[in-house]
Amino acid sequence: MTRRTAVTFLPDLPGLFLCIIFPALVFFDGGKVLVDGDTFWHVKAGLTMLEKGTLLTRDIFSHTAYGTSWTAHEWLAEIVMALVHRLAGLQGLAIFYFFIAALSFWILFKVALRFSGEWISLLCLLVAFSFSKSHLLARPHLFSWLFGAITLYILVLGGRKLFFLPLITALWANFHGGFILGLALQGIYLAGPLIEGSIASKTLAWRSFWREHKFPLLIMLASILASGINPFGYHLLIFPFLVTQKIFSTGIGEWLPPNMQDEHLFRFFLLGILLLLSLPGIQTSWTNRLLLLVFFNAALSHQRNISIASMVLIPFLAQALTSLKQHFRGFSREKSGAGNLRLSGASGLVTAAILFVTFMAANTSAYPSGQKVFQAVIPVPEKNHPIEAVAFLNANPIPGKMFNKYGWGGYLIYALDPAQKVFIDGRADMYGEIIFGDYRKIVGIEEENGELLRNYEIGWVLFPHDTPLVRYLAVTGHWREIYRDDKATILIRKSK
User: CA-CA distance, 245 to 493, in Å (whole number)?
Assistant: First the structure.
């Protein structure tokens, strides 16, 4: 028998993956993490809550929904974002979220290793990671990646570790509405064994199920109760369904179903899963079948769910690929470590944490040269936000009510100084179907366009210069252009 040495400081494969992927994201993917306008209103909301010392429960950022009740279900994430922003600015916020994403995949690597060897686990991680890139944004949903990975790992481990799930659910419910996914995972890990037991006994095996799974069932009930420990109570259990109403799911890009011609890699992934399921000898549990059913449905309904679906399907993929490998001769079961060297499971995490602290410190005001480096590698993309137009407005504030592009609302809330109330921003659930519908009618130049602009008392418009709306308003004779750059145009209503 081979004798193994004491644990070394060298990281194991998951730790090495974490140490590589975190700085790689910072230095090679930083140009994409701040492209979404929602990042900015989240920061502004957090800063406002810190300044006022109270939770925001009504809108203060728009003139169309001002005073409307607002479910700030990501309030704790916004507080954290504001604190990070105060410390290290937007670039520091991006670094923070890159670390959250990398940490999530490190945990998922640990999950995969429960079902397979290191190299198959690494392949599963790379597949899931490739599908996460499109939704790797500095927004609170990355906390759902982290809490989702932790929840999955605990469910895979089972036993007394399930005690942590209610606490995780309570935290998750204050960070992001994705906590519903955690409850769904717990339900799937209960339903799978129930189906398998019922098939084996050819009847609903309630009694044996209760005897064997009483503890995880009680944990799930405790988690449901714990989800109400937030400022909005159990209303959050139905809140995610409010933002998936048809008018929002057809008018907001990330809520649309994936276009399979564009998402060709995801299409191949689906085909690969079907191929694995069809191969003889590939067996999978009912838990994995339910994971496939529930999360593929979520991904095919809304493209934003592709990332989380690819993550929670790692157990199935690792198990199926391991089963497939065993059908080929010449392959032996993989073993962790290298020879007599036992690698450390903690040093990779410690090293990545040191890198994180170093990057954050270098991006503070005490190190201006470090700030310049991170501003270069993690820019605020000018092609996605009206940066020059905002600079003009800050120097030349325009009185009256604004009409703005939906995707620009968050940046305008964050960057306009003096602050000006927007027409709309990424909080579609708060604006409701009427305001969101009116926005689409105005942008679509429907018959009510002029009447709606008058009813909302719009005095000026900030919109991309190459859009039909700007061209239409310019030819009506009622609007005058006062600013234009290669990104945006500002039009003001002519006085009568």
Answer: 34
DSSP-based three-state secondary structure for 481: strand
pTM confidence score: 0.91
Structure tokens at 165: 């799930």
SS percent in the chain: helix, strand, coil, step 5: 65, 5, 30
The span from the CA of 247 to the CA of 238, in Å, is 17
Per DSSP bridges, beta strands 342-344 and 401-404 are: unpaired
C-alpha–C-alpha distance, residues 49 and 231, integer Å:
14
Q: pLDDT in tens for each of the 496 residues of the chain?
A: 445 455 578 888 999 999 999 999 999 988 899 999 999 999 999 999 999 999 999 999 999 999 999 988 899 999 999 999 999 999 999 999 999 999 999 999 999 999 988 999 999 999 999 988 888 999 999 999 999 999 999 999 999 999 999 999 999 999 998 999 999 999 999 988 888 877 777 676 667 777 788 899 999 999 999 999 999 998 888 876 666 565 555 656 666 778 877 777 888 888 888 888 888 877 788 898 899 999 988 888 888 888 899 999 999 898 888 888 776 654 444 444 445 567 887 889 999 999 999 999 999 988 899 899 999 999 999 899 999 999 999 999 999 999 999 999 999 999 999 999 999 999 888 898 899 999 999 999 998 999 999 999 999 999 998 899 999 999 998 999 999 999 999 999 988 6
The C-alpha atoms of residue 313 and residue 103 are separated, in whole angstroms, by 18
Which helix or strand (DSSP H or E) is residue 9 part of? strand 7-11
Burial class from Cβ neighbours inside 10 Å (0-12, 13-18, 19+) for residue 192 reads middle
Phi, psi of 29 (to 5 degrees): -125, 10
Provide the residue ranges of all domains of the chain, joining segments of one domain with +: 71-348, 387-493
Residues present in the chain in total: 496
Cα separation, 350 vs 344, in Å, equals 10
Burial of 373 from C-beta contacts in 10 A (0-12 / 13-18 / 19+): middle
